[in-house]
Design the sequence.
């Protein structure tokens, strides 16, 4: 973005300075890069971004990014979101994933929510009496496994405990985090060209 | 009928003419069939039966006129049929003893008349009409019969040519009837023959596939090409035309070796031989045998192509190299036991066993697969079919597995195309193709070539334990099967959930493992490894890691090419994934084929790369994970390092220095696999050097003082193997490793540890400085106590150590004072050869002390040693012989004692026929001692010791020369032995010994020459060989005995010359 004005540059730097102090995992330079990327996204929709960012189209993910629920992702929200995305600790990721899976944001994942999320995850066996039996069974198995307090719904505590026991359950109900390789590629691309140098 | 008669029927003489049909089951059934054909002919084919033969069939019959009834004109002994041909000749005519028949109707009638003589008549008829078809239809048809290919066309031509005959259609029909009979006869006799084959089509096929494999291997290729002359395979496995099959021919091959001309080979049931050059199907004239018969293709090729012989051996040896380290107590096997010791299975033996083993491997038939594919019952004679149907079965299973997984892939693809495109896209071609490369031939080869010893080192193929019927299966079985089905249908999210659910079952339980495998779950799990979904891969590996603790699962994983996928996973960026893959590899690599696969797919290199972690005092959390990955990598390398080639591969990949770095880490769970790997590698010399030069001895010695017995055992074992090199022994001492070793001797309950420790002490005590140290720690007392009640692995090492320590005189007395002599002598009755070598050495060392010798004598030790000369192992022989020498020297009445050893002297003289240099040298040394007693010398002279010693004089081995010269010197003392040595040509070679650079040889030789020079003829020989000049030079030696011997010898020669002069001239010159 060579056309960026000197003023803009100055503003970006100041913003980066402030945000980098509030958000974990990114230093000032990296924050600056991400702000520029965000600006790019806003300014020109055709800016090519790595595939992993296409995850953003998922509404749920958007909601978790949009913490103040105003329907927009502010620059700060964007960077905070990415910090979990790219460099989040297990704790942060558990929180993030739980928020994504808690579709109605009531603080619990219900059987119905789970079924909704897993609905298309298995090919239906048309020969069986109930073609959905498989998926229902799988939901039941998973639900029983994770519902430690047997209250018929997954609380955050349930979810956290399950993930800590078996890390694979972090993204139990659908991919919502980039994998290691995508992260690496994204970081490489985003941070490769430090501004103002 | 033509073909079957000439080819199937067994004639007494091969030449045509008046051969007799032998009375064999095949002939009998042939005759019976022809008979019933003839009998029924006129009723079945009345038209054709009337056809008049071109020429009558005539034979001498046993029938007489009285046998004939109506329809015949009987006049005296002759008979004529009333039935006549168009020209009025009778169709049947009997003028005893000859009978003429000209139509099938007459023949039919005839056999009916003949009653119980039927068979005899048919036989006589066939014997005298060797080509009945020619007679029946005319010679032109006979030629038609020969050319197989488009005979129908030619037949029509022939019939056209004979147009005038109105009955041409009849003729053709008759011809076909005969042809049909012919075929029927052939196929029947074929059935009979194929039941008694010796070489089976299956065996030939296997061998051909094996050879084909050798054609494609680039630089290692041993043959240019192998091909069949015919692509068509009959249901019985043969590829030859049926009329050749009756001769036992299975197939014809054209093989191009790399170094000689193309070979045309016939594989028949009787064996394999070169033919006249059959390039294509149907070249009739080339069938004859042009070489001698071989038992199989490999032996034939070996005899024809030196290149093949050389390289096929390499192929086999490559396999055999990995044979060692298969003993039960692996950690304690000494290095030299492997190098010098136990006679390993010879190549010959192994080759023979390849087939047998392949068979054994398949015999435990898996229930379920068995009924689906039955080979033709014809081949079901026992012992013939096992390898064949085994591979078939395997093929079948592989096929169904592939099919299944293929289906899954497709389904997965379908579902995923909806959601996320790249899930499992990469997988389906991967596994499919990898399975394709693994054709049944591949399976067979891999097993024939690599699995030769895996059973002994790990798990034999255990028979499957599973409940008898389905109802007995626990509910887990069905639940897991259900999950596996979900696994096949789910996308990545569902897959992960299913994998997690599966992990909740107790996967160590065999039922659960079987459930996964039976439902095709292994294929799916392995397919997942080829996807890009990291979480699926991790989940899959977590399950595979658990179930690979079962040997059957390990084999199944290897069969499905799972190791390749795991090796690939080692390249991942995700540390958890790498660690899991390495751990699973560590589990699977418990058998040789798996280890080889890992190496071949670059696994060793990748695993070694995992060890490359930065050297850090206080690692961060992230670096801790690197350490964990490295630990898993070492675990895998540890498993892999049990194969010789892998040891070398680890070293070449730079693994030893990296292991050295890990050795400095404090974690015990890291150190055990690290030291374990090191001690495995240490059986290779190149690795030992690397261990030493990388300065690891210091760390090993340090680790010896830890408090984990397993770790201590591996350390001691590593030192045991490394201390083979002198420098290492010195380093162990310098780093004060001897005392911790001695302390470990207290842990008598842990036999593995004890074996490793005593081994280390044994090897360290080869250096005398170390022995001095050991004396300080009173090692001998401890060792002597270990001489009783220990397993042989320990005993070998304890006795070895005592033998080394006893090289120092003071220690011999200590051993005696501790009561060590008796247990040592008692051990002479054992059978373990490694142990015997060490015991004889120890006893020999002890026998150099007179007080010790008394005890040995009392225990009849010399007799025990003597009986070990009969041991088949040359090392035991020579070691026993060496031990006998000091015994004979130090025992009081050695001569008398020996005199009473019945057959003992003959035994030792006969050992001079050995081809082993060490045996010969030791036996010569013993003979030198025996010959000191005159009576015994007389006995061994009678046994022909002189010519045998003389024969050995041409040797170039310095050690043997020395003891040989000594033996000759002592043997000269009896009768005319001096002259005998001269006559046997021993003198001239002895003179040459003086030119050797070894002074100890000179001394012994000088003594021998001195003795020999007392015989004038020998002096002449010596003089001719220029001995004087050589001896003159030696008279300047510092050793007085030597001086004297040399001088005396020259004196004897000179005196002879003087006497000669005196005799010639009557005065001294």
Sequence:
């Amino acid at each position: 973005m060579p056309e960026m004005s000197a003023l803009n540059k100055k503003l970006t730097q100041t913003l980066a300075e402030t945000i980098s102090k509030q958000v974990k995992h990114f230093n000032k330079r990296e924050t600056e890069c991400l702000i520029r990327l965000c600006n790019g996204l806003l300014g020109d929709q055709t800016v090519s971004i790595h595939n992993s960012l296409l995850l953003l189209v998922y509404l749920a993910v958007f909601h978790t990014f949009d913490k103040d629920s105003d329907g927009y992702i502010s620059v700060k929200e964007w960077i905070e979101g990415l910090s979990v995305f790219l460099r989040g600790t297990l704790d942060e990721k558990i929180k993030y994933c739980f928020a994504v899976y808690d579709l109605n944001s009531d603080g619990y994942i219900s059987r119905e929510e789970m079924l909704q999320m897993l609905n298309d995850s298995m090919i239906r066996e048309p020969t069986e009496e109930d073609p959905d039996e498989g998926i229902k069974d799988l939901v039941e198995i998973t639900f029983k496994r994770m519902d430690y307090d047997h209250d018929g719904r997954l609380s955050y505590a349930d979810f956290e405990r399950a993930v800590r026991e078996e890390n694979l359950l972090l993204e139990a109900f659908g991919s919502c985090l980039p994998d290691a390789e995508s992260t690496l590629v994204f970081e490489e691309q985003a941070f490769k060209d430090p501004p103002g140098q | 009928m033509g073909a079957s008669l000439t080819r199937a029927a067994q004639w007494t003489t091969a030449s045509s003419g008046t051969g007799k049909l032998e009375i064999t089951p095949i002939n009998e059934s042939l005759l019976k069939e022809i008979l019933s054909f003839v009998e029924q002919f006129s009723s079945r084919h009345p038209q054709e039966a009337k056809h008049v033969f071109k020429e009558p069939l005539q034979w001498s019959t046993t029938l007489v006129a009285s046998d004939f009834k109506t329809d015949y004109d009987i006049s005296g002994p002759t008979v004529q049929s009333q039935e006549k041909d168009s020209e009025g000749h009778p169709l049947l005519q009997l003028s005893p003893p000859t009978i003429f028949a000209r139509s099938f109707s007459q023949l039919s009638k005839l056999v009916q008349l003949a009653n119980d003589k039927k068979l005899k008549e048919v036989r006589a008829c066939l014997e005298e009409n060797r080509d009945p078809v020619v007679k029946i239809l005319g010679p032109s048809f006979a030629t038609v019969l020969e050319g197989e290919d488009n005979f129908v066309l030619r037949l029509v031509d022939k019939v056209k040519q004979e147009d005038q005959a109105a009955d041409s259609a009849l003729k053709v029909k008759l011809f076909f009837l005969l042809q049909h009979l012919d075929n029927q006869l052939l196929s029947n006799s074929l059935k009979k023959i194929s039941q008694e084959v010796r070489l089976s089509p299956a065996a030939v096929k296997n061998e051909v596939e094996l050879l084909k494999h050798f054609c494609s291997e680039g630089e290692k290729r041993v043959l240019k090409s192998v091909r069949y002359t015919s692509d068509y395979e009959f249901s019985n496995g043969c590829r030859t035309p049926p009329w050749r099959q009756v001769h036992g021919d299975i197939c014809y091959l054209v093989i191009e070796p790399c170094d000689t001309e193309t070979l045309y080979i016939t594989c028949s049931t009787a064996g394999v031989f070169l033919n006249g050059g059959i390039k294509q199907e149907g070249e009739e004239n080339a069938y004859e045998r042009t070489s001698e018969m071989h038992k199989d293709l490999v032996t034939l090729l070996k005899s024809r192509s030196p290149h093949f012989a050389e390289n096929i051996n390499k192929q086999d040896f490559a396999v055999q190299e990995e044979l060692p380290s298969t003993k039960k107590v692996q950690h304690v096997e000494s290095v030299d036991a492997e190098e010098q010791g136990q006679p390993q299975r010879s190549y010959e033996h192994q080759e023979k066993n390849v087939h047998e083993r392949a068979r054994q491997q398949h015999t435990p038939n898996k229930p379920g697969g068995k009924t689906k594919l039955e080979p033709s019952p014809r081949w079901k004679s026992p012992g013939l079919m096992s390898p064949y149907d085994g591979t078939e079965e395997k093929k079948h299973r592989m096929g169904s597995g592939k099919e299944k997984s293929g289906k899954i892939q497709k389904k997965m693809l379908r579902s995923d195309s909806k959601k996320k495109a790249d899930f499992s896209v990469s997988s389906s071609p991967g596994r499919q193709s990898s399975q394709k490369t693994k054709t049944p031939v591949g399976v067979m080869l891999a097993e024939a070539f690599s699995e030769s010893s895996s059973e002994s080192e790990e798990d034999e193929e255990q028979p499957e334990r599973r409940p008898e019927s389905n109802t007995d299966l626990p509910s887990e079985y069905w639940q897991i099967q259900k999950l596996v089905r979900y696994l096949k249908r789910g996308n990545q999210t569902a897959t992960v959930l299913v994998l997690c659910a599966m992990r909740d079952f107790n996967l160590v339980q065999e039922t659960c493992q079987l459930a996964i495998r039976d439902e095709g779950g292994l294929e799916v799990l392995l397919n997942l490894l080829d996807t890009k979904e990291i979480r699926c891969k991790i989940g899959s590996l977590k399950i595979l890691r658990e179930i690979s603790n079962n040997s059957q699962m390990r084999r199944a994983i290897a069969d499905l090419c799972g190791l390749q996928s795991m090796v690939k996973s080692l390249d991942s960026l995700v540390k958890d994934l790498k660690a899991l893959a390495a751990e699973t590899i560590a589990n699977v690599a418990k058998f040789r084929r798996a280890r080889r696969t890992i190496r071949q797919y670059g696994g060793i290199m990748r695993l070694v790369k995992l060890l490359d972690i930065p050297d850090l005092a206080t690692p961060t959390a992230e670096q801790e994970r690197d350490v964990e990955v490295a630990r898993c990598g070492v675990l895998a390398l540890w498993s892999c390092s049990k194969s010789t080639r892998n040891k070398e591969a680890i070293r070449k990949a730079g693994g030893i220095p990296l292991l050295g770095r890990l050795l400095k880490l404090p974690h015990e769970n890291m150190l055990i696999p690290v030291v374990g790997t090191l001690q495995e590698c240490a059986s290779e010399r190149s690795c030992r050097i690397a261990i030493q030069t990388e300065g690891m001895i210091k760390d090993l010695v340090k680790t010896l003082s830890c408090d984990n017995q397993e770790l201590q055992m591996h350390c001691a074992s590593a030192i045991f193997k490394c201390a083979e090199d002198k420098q290492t022994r010195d380093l162990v001492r310098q780093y004060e490793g001897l005392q911790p070793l001695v302390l470990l001797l207290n842990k008598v309950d842990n036999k593995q540890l004890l074996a490793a420790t005593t081994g280390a002490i044994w090897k360290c005590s080869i250096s005398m400085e170390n022995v001095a140290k050991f004396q300080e720690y009173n090692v001998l007392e401890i060792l002597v106590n270990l001489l009783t009640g220990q397993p042989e692995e320990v005993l070998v090492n304890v006795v070895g150590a005592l033998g080394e320590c006893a090289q120092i005189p003071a220690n011999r007395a200590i051993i005696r004072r501790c009561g060590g002599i008796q247990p040592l002598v008692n051990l002479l009755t054992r059978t373990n050869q490694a142990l015997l070598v060490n015991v004889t050495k120890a006893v020999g060392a002890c026998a150099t002390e007179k007080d010790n010798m008394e005890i040995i004598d009392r225990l009849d030790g010399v007799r025990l040693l003597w009986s070990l000369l009969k041991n088949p192992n040359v090392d035991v022989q020579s070691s026993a012989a060496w031990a006998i020498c000091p015994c004979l020297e130090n025992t009081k009445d050695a001569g008398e004692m020996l005199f009473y050893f019945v057959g003992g002297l003959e035994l030792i003289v006969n050992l001079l026929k050995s081809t082993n240099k060490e045996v010969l040298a030791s036996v010569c040394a013993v003979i030198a001692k025996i010959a000191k007693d005159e009576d015994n010398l007389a006995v061994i002279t009678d046994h022909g010791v002189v010519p045998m010693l003389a024969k050995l004089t041409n040797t170039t081995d310095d050690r043997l020369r020395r003891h040989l010269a000594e033996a000759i010197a002592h043997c000269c003392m009896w009768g005319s032995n001096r002259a005998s040595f001269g006559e046997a040509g021993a003198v001239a070679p002895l003179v040459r010994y003086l030119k050797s650079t070894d002074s100890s040889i000179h001394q012994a030789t000088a003594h021998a020459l001195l003795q020999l020079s007392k015989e004038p003829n020998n002096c002449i020989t010596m003089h001719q060989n220029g001995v004087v000049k050589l001896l003159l030079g030696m008279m300047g030696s510092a050793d007085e005995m030597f001086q004297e011997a040399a001088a005396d010898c020259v004196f004897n020669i000179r005196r002879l010359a003087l006497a000669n002069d005196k005799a010639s001239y009557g005065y001294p010159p």
Notes: Chain A is about 55% helix and 0% strand.
